[in-house]
Write a structure and sequence with these properties.
30% strand; alpha+beta; seven-stranded mixed beta sheet; Aminopeptidase; globular
Length: 160
């Protein structure tokens, strides 16, 4: 799909906020929700974590736009990739790779020799995506964000 359509990668704008929050809710439901305790899921929804995250960092995101619709984004700070999210309807289309290419280039241009990010052990699709991009496990530790007994992997990639 991504190879036959126009993809625009651009800086997020204030008017993207609703689409960004919708992407976060979509990936929460398709990836995280089945792994969480009911209490953790309720907390995510009641605290409206997508709105808080987009409100805090949304204008720093690079977004992927297809046919005028924002369908993915990447967010990084320094050498750490905070988030890569692609709407489930556009998963496996190359959008994630395009966004990560831009993030890794930005990290390298800022003078960092490595890029770092986290994923969880249950997320085998994510692990395969990052392994194909030459990320390797550097550490693992309890995922305290979700209070659901998950384990986080720290992945690192040498750049350059």
């Amino acid at each position: 799909m991504a190879s036959t359509i126009d993809i625009l990668i651009r800086q997020a704008r204030a008017d993207d906020a609703a689409a960004l929050k919708a992407i976060l809710r979509d990936t929460f439901e398709s990836t995280w929700l089945p792994q969480l305790t009911a209490e953790a899921a309720r907390a995510f929804l009641s605290e409206d974590r997508p709105a808080a995250y987009v409100g805090e960092r949304g204008l720093m995101f690079l977004v992927a736009e297809v046919g005028g619709e924002v369908v993915g984004f990447v967010d990084w700070d320094g050498d750490f990739v905070n988030a890569l999210h692609v709407r489930s309807s556009h998963a496996r289309t190359g959008l994630g790779g395009r966004l990560m290419d831009r993030a890794e280039a930005g990290i390298a241009e800022a003078g960092f020799a490595t890029a770092r990010l986290e994923t969880d052990t249950f997320n085998l699709r994510s692990q395969a995506f990052y392994a194909a991009r030459d990320y390797v496990e550097a550490d693992r530790y309890p995922d305290e964000e979700w209070s659901s007994g998950l384990t986080t992997l720290l992945l690192v990639k040498a750049l350059g």
